[in-house]
Amino acid sequence: MKARKRPLFLLLLLLLLLLLLGGCAAPAGGTAAPDPAGSCTLTVRCDTLAAHLDQLDEDVAELVPSDGCLLALTTVTLEAGDTAFDVLQRTAQANRLPLEFSSAPLYNAVYVEGIGGIYEFDGGPASGWTYCVNGVFPNVGMNQYTLQPGDQVSVLYTMDLGADVGNDYSEDAS
Question: Which one of 39, 60, 111, 153 has the lowest number of neighbouring Cβ atoms within 10 Å?
Fold first, then answer.
């Protein structure tokens, strides 16, 4: 009976070793998973469009929620080095919110063209998507703004180059 227990014991020991060593391996792709770096909040709103439905094409007006909220305030876990765009892209995907953007590698820039089927110029010639962090409108693209734990990111639709959502950049011009 002792002879039968020894091979079973060795087999169990081998399986335990494999499990322990397998848990130390890096995930597919050869790099370790990013460490969480706290959290931030994100919301996506188009209140300006909701307030001016009569000025929109019917197919666009149908996409605008009556309360202007495309994505309610959502807490997002940050990964080290996350930008405002990283958080928007990840959260939009997780919430099945369509997001379209274009990249300009020469300028290291990402431009948000549309969210939830609502695009730049749908609200007129001075309309499109903008963003603010903690109530401040950064002078860099979303993909260039690195977030910190506790940041509050708002992605907003403007119909007046930002002035209607609190970003009157003309005051800063000299």
Answer: 39
